[in-house]
Amino acid sequence: MEKTERVGLSIERQLLEAFDRQIAVKGYANRSEAIRDLIRQQLSEARLEDPNARAVAAVILVYDHHVTRLSQGLLQLQHSHLLETVSSLHVHLDHHHCLEVVVLRGRVRQLYKVADRMISLRGVFLGKIHLVTLEGHASTQCPASPV
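RESULT FIELD:
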């Protein structure tokens, strides 16, 4: 385990009180854990600015499964990008609508490309991509992607 260092911070009282309320609602045991999470999140977001950084993505799609060839198009995209596709979850929301969550792994540039192709398919009502990376953090290692 890495050595832990103590640091001191100067924070305005109102800001600290608001922070304490927020971390209590979220269930943090102490400020240190909350601050470490904020730092990790910021480092991850900064790393995602590099199009060659390795990352994982959740592509969330809501679509009408009755649209001709939409399901086949989604499957074809997943199968043609097997190096990126890790898993998928399919949920029937009602008679017409489905929710699909596709988990991808690869380089940021490629993840956006695959996700944009999925989201732009005719019949997809809503689509969103959420990326995270652990690469580059001092205390973590992201599993290597084969891409």
